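Q: Hi! New to this. If I give you a protein sequence and the SMILES for magnesium ion, can you show me the bound structure?
A: Yes, paste them in.
Q: Okay, here:
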Amino acid sequence: MGVLNKDKSGLKGSFTTMVSESRQTTDTNSNSTALAVKNLSKIYDSVSGKVVALDNINFTVKKGEFVSIVGPSGSGKSTLLNMIGALDRPTSGQVYINGIDIFALSDSKIATMRNGLIGFIFQSFNLINRTTVLKNVKLPGMISGMPVSEANNRAMKILEALGIADKATQKPVNLSGGQQQRVAIARSLVNNPAIVLADEPTGNLDSKTGDDVFDMLKTLSRKFKRTIIMVTHNPELAESTDRSILIKDGKVERDVAN
Ligand SMILES: Nc1ncnc2c1ncn2[C@@H]1O[C@H](COP(=O)(O)OP(=O)(O)OP(=O)(O)O)[C@@H](O)[C@H]1O
Ligand SMILES: [Mg+2]
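A: Thanks. Here is the predicted structure of the protein with magnesium ion bound:
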């Protein structure tokens, strides 16, 4: 399982240069801070008018912390995760990942950063079904310029660590939901991301399978010191994380250690 240990080997060449060049120094960007969200707001323009999805959100996450984001439907949880993951730009405010002010970068640098520093796990797995499990897992590595043999090795070792190496040549569609989510977890780890973002990762799974997937995330957090931010509607899972942030009407309503 050594492949899951935190090391910087996934960050290569120009990408590493880009990261160090754009490193900022503010109080929220100390070495122990993985993520800092500052005055973050998102307003959507819809046919029925403006929707304030996020309203001045502020918090920081330490390296190795496992944080759950909870709150009612429509409160802004997915919007928040999408901003942290730089899938969409905020209306105002900043997101710092490992000290880098991501929205100060150009769109193409944001894309490079997203692939190298952020791992995503979605409720609906979001795997590519026309290709194999192995190719799905190594894809972020290939995009970031990892040599093919290294990408293959890393992907296989992670699949082994997650107990699904025997599925490497299968198409994801032939796997069970729990197995597909393991593939998505493996894919999220291939580049040694600074943070792993999971939006209701157990939402499409029965409770036993969901608990297994959650236990896997917990192992990644406890044993391998991964920084994980997980949206969940399940109060028991939320309480099993280090800290829960309650979002209501786009604001942080509560932020408590568990
Ligand atoms: N692309 C969009 N365009 C317009 N409004 C949007 C868009 N995405 C989200 N919203 C609105 O922003 C608000 C927050 O939505 P979001 O999806 O973040 O909620 P959520 O907390 O993830 O909800 P759920 O628990 O149901 O997944 C909602 O009012 C939603 O309708
Ligand atoms: Mg959501």
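A: Strands lie at 33-46, 49-62, 66-70, 92-97, 100-101, 118-122, 195-199, 228-231, 243-248, 251-257. Let me know if you'd like me to explain how to read the tokens.
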